[in-house]
Design brief:
Layout: H1 2-17, E1 42-43, E2 50-51, E3 58-63, H2 64-69, H3 76-82, E4 86-90, E5 93-96, E6 99-100, E7 112-116, E8 119-120, E9 136-143, H4 147-150, E10 157-163, E11 171-179, E12 183-193, E13 198-209, E14 214-215, E15 225-240, E16 243-257, E17 269-270, E18 277-292, E19 297-315, E20 324-344, E21 348-374, E22 377-403, E23 408-433, H5 438-448, E24 455-475, E25 478-489, E26 492-496, E27 501-505, E28 508-520, E29 525-544, E30 553-573, E31 578-596, E32 599-600, E33 612-621, E34 625-634, E35 637-638, E36 646-647, E37 650-660, E38 664-671, E39 679-685, E40 688-694, E41 699-707
Parallel strand pairs: 7-10, 14-17
Antiparallel strand pairs: 1-2, 3-9, 4-5, 5-6, 7-8, 9-10, 11-12, 11-41, 12-13, 13-15, 15-16, 16-18, 18-19, 19-20, 20-21, 21-22, 22-23, 23-24, 24-25, 25-28, 26-27, 28-29, 29-30, 30-31, 31-32, 31-33, 33-34, 34-37, 35-36, 37-38, 38-41, 39-40
Length: about 700
């Protein structure tokens, strides 16, 4: 950690001192007045660069200007919480169209992909709060399956994050912020030319908060303190007018002491009686090469690498005992994608792609002094396991837009995907404290000693993923369309360490049918809408065994469900000074078939699926003054499969206002203006009563930005 601090401090010192009096040859970022012109925004996630007007997918796009204006968008979690039919469930989990990242009934792989600067993010690397919006260019949220172009782990959607590229004009940006609960930010970015063909960009940020939760066992009011240090460097080299290379290297180190969960739905109070900490370190490297082969053809090669380490210690049973949960994870991943793009605007736009990735995931966890009740007797046991998964994935895919007439465009896509996984599990368990009754303890030890031995298995699968649609341009500013697309999540190996057996579970599929509307005019009005229906087959679910011991479960294909709903987003520039934005989403989810542990959940809704999500915002800007007001609404949801524990809806109001000069700006922002106490999720633990993930209280902060 000390090395990170020294590194960050050196970067800050360099960037602040370098080119302090440099001339700026272009308007400053915050001098621009945001305009609602969707045709100027390019959606990159579909591999074919379409404008938002031409995209049939339900996509929410947040630009750098919008991140600057909205007080809630200081990390990607704020963007997710504002987008219709997207919601944050907890600090490490979120949902798209009612589907949480881990699925609704079990499974191992993510249900949607997160890609940052061309590098696919591991589960622990794509936690919403881990991705800061500092020095980002654009964030795209695609709702609905993206499996044709993104492959595995895109069953529910995809999130594509792009940072700002190097520029050949020298400029720097420094931002300082301070607010409630010792929350502060120190961030800097610097870009410029090294040679006439080579430019660089470097950015760094340190964020900290003491958090809003008090632990009454340790008498600590900074129980959920967090510190994140992010460093990113980029080099852009123009080989000639038709080809260029971009190298991006980034590292994020995130430390968290304590946890946000509370024993009360009304107060942020925690009672854990052992120290709790989380540490995540993520390094991403991407090398992107682009070459214009001919007037119609171009080649893009993206090589990506990620290395991740994660350490965690948490209290397994609250203050009921001394049970501790320890988890160490590590992963690394290489990926290579080749895209051949054909662009003849009068006839066809197409992409032909090849993709390969290889990596591993190592997971060591231990639950110490785990309490059990056996026939009225209390015992404790230690449970330790080590898992390794190695995976290989190859794919070939295409996506084609064929313009039959100037008004009618056919859209087709197909992906061939091969996925192979090798899984190793090595569990052990031991009795720590028995009942004191020898015959009973002998029986208990016999059960616990069953846990042990290596389990090694592998499986592979091959799938075909089609996409077919049509787009009709009624006018230059009005498009409607329909698209069918198949989504999937790969299967794998489920090892039951208690019964000393393993079994394969198959991939699961969704069939998604979607209607879309895109409208805009020259007066700054825009409207996008999508209506969808999704049929989900061979759903992966977790089924617990009879012993109740950790690891006594299987993942199997035992569910079917469906969901339907809509998203509408709009923007309107009322005057050159006033702009309005808004959006609303609705989703209805239901299990058609789902039996787990002899309980039938058919007819029940998904957990954590907010039925209504909405946002509205207004900004006012003069040459010097700025004010922005936003309100977001999250509807009701269930926190359990039986649909007995409902999470209430809530609405938050946020404000940002300030002054902008030619080279500097100062702002005050208030999040949760009305100081609403609200529950994001309710978690039931076997060894403790329900705990609550409460959202942040009212926070006030001041930010100063200086550009030169």
């Amino acid at each position: 950690m000390q090395a990170y601090r020294k590194f960050t401090l050196s970067i800050l010192t360099l960037c602040i001192s370098q080119h302090l009096h440099a001339e700026i040859n272009k308007p400053l970022e915050y001098e621009k007045i945001p305009m609602v012109k969707l045709d100027a925004i390019v959606v990159t996630a579909g591999k074919i660069n379409r404008t938002a007007q031409e995209t049939l997918d339900s996509v929410n796009i947040t630009t750098a200007d919008q991140m600057q204006d909205d007080p809630t968008l200081d990390d990607v979690s704020g963007i997710l919480n504002k987008a219709p039919n997207v919601n944050i469930n907890a600090e490490t989990n979120f949902s798209i169209r009612g589907i949480s990242r881990g699925g609704v009934g079990g499974g191992v792989a993510d249900t949607f992909s997160v890609v940052v600067d061309g590098v696919a993010q591991n589960y622990m690397a794509n936690m919403p709060g881990l991705l800061s919006t500092w020095d980002l260019e654009q964030v795209e949220i695609l709702r609905g399956p993206q499996s044709t172009t993104s492959g595995r782990n895109a069953l529910a959607g995809a999130i594509v994050v792009s940072s700002k590229d190097p520029e050949f004009t020298q400029s720097s940006n420094l931002q300082l912020g301070y607010g409630t609960d010792n929350t502060y930010q120190v961030a800097v970015a610097n870009t410029g030319a090294i040679t006439e063909n080579l430019a660089y960009r470097i950015s760094a940020e340190r964020k900290h908060t003491d958090g809003h939760t008090t632990n009454i066992t340790f008498n600590k009011d900074d129980w959920n303190s967090q510190t994140a240090i992010s460093v990113r460097g980029k080099l852009l080299y123009f080989i000639d007018n038709d080809s260029k290379v971009m190298l991006t290297v980034s590292d994020v180190n995130h430390d968290r002491d304590g946890i946000r969960t509370s024993i009360s739905p009304d107060e942020r109070i925690n009672t854990d009686n052992i120290p709790v900490y989380f540490n995540t370190d993520v390094t991403n490297v991407s090398l992107k090469y682009h070459d214009r082969i001919s007037d119609d053809w171009s080649l893009t090669s993206t090589t990506g690498y990620q290395d991740l380490t994660f350490e965690r210690q948490s209290d397994y049973d609250g203050n009921n005992g001394d049970a501790a949960y320890n988890n160490d994870r590590s992963s690394n991943n290489w990926s290579q994608e080749l895209l051949f793009n054909y662009d003849n605007a009068d006839d066809i736009e197409a992409v032909f792609g090849l993709y390969a990735t290889q990596g591993d995931f190592k997971n060591s966890l231990s639950t110490l002094e785990l309490p059990y009740n056996i026939q009225g007797y209390k015992i404790t046991a230690d449970y330790i396991t080590y898992n390794v998964e190695e995976y290989t994935n190859y794919a070939a895919f295409t996506n084609v837009d064929y313009h039959i007439t100037p008004k009618v465009t056919l859209i087709g896509g197909l992906r061939f995907d091969y996925d192979k996984r090798d899984t190793l599990s090595d569990p052990t368990a031991r009795l720590v404290q028995g009942t004191g009754i020898t015959p009973v303890d002998q029986v208990v030890e016999g059960v616990i000693n069953q846990i042990g031995g290596d389990f090694d298995d592998s499986n592979s699968q091959t799938v075909w993923l089609p996409k077919l649609g049509i787009d009709y341009a009624w006018t230059d500013s009005l498009n409607t369309g329909f698209v069918y697309q198949r989504g999937y999540r790969p299967g794998g190996i489920s090892a039951n360490v208690v019964t000393q057996s393993s079994q394969e579970y198959d991939e699961e599929y969704t069939d998604n049918y979607e209607f879309s509307l895109r409208a805009r005019n020259n007066n700054g009005f825009s409207l996008t809408g999508n209506i969808f229906y999704t049929d989900w087959k061979d759903q992966q679910v977790s089924v617990n065994g009879e012993t109740g011991l950790p690891g006594d479960y299987f993942v199997m294909n035992a569910g079917e469900s469906h969901l339907y709903g809509a998203e509408i987003e709009t923007g309107y520039k009322v005057t050159p000074k006033i702009e309005l934005t808004g959006g609303v989403g609705y989703v209805k989810t239901e299990f058609d078939e789902f039996v787990s542990n002899e309980t039938d959940y058919s007819g029940k809704e998904f957990t954590e699926a907010r039925d209504i999500t909405a946002s509205i915002g207004a900004t006012y800007r003069t040459n010097s003054w700025f004010a922005g007001l936003t309100a977001t609404h999250q509807g009701e949801a269930w926190s359990d499969l039986a649909n007995t524990n409902k999470i209430d809806d809530y609405t938050l109001v946020n404000l940002k206002a300030g002054y902008e000069a030619d080279s500097w700006g100062a702002f005050i922002q208030v999040n949760n203006l009305l100081d609403k106490t609200y529950i994001q999720d309710t978690i039931g633990y076997r060894y403790r009563p329900n705990t609550y993930n409460l959202g942040d209280p009212r926070t006030v902060g001041v930010t100063v930005n200086y550009k030169w």
